[in-house]
Amino acid sequence: MKRRNFARRPGCSVEATLDLIDGKWKGVILYHLQSGTQRFGELRRRMPGITQRMLTKQLRALEEDKLVIRKVYAEVPPRVEYCLSELGESLKPVIDILKAWGESHQQLLSCAPAPEVEPIKKRKRAA
Fold first, then answer.
1. Which of 86, 81, 87, 92 is nearest to 34 (CA)?
2. Quick one: which of 53, 26, 14, 28 has its CA closest to 111?
3. Do 70 and 63 contact (CB within 8 A), yes or no?
């Protein structure tokens, strides 16, 4: 994926970092790979909302940006594993802080679980 040139712009380092982990899925993929090497199917099970096509696309982009290493084993059926590169490992504190911030502000976020509503109890009429 061709990266934009952020040089000589205020906040360019922030823009560059966000450009690497932009979108709905890249940060989530990086988060799941923090627990170690995983196969494609394992990642897909951990993210039930992502399509196979989107996961493939995002993994390719992360690999191209040198955040993820893809290892293909010469076996039948082929086995492919993904893990964080050294550069990807260096993003762990960023991902952990994003997770912590999300957890502490979850009530304000649109992804927060809906509050439980108690059912309204009917009053008995006085005779």
1. 92
2. 28
3. yes
Low-confidence ranges of the chain (pLDDT < 50): 1
Alpha carbon separation from 117 to 56, 106, 107, 121 (Å, rounded): 40, 18, 15, 12
* Beta pairing partners, 82: 38, 70
Nearest by Cα to 70 from 52, 82, 86, 85: 82
Alpha-carbon distances, residue 53 vs 4, 31, 57, 60, 85 (angstroms): 24, 19, 6, 11, 22
pTM: 0.75
Between the alpha carbon of residue 55 and those of residues 32, 106, 111, the distances in Å are 13, 25, 21
The C-alpha atoms of residue 89 and residue 108 are separated, in whole angstroms, by 29
Indicate the SS3 state at residue 35.
coil
* 40 within 8 A of 79, measured Cβ to Cβ: no
**One-letter identity of residue 101:** W
What are the φ/ψ torsions at residue 125 (nearest 5 degrees)? -75, 140
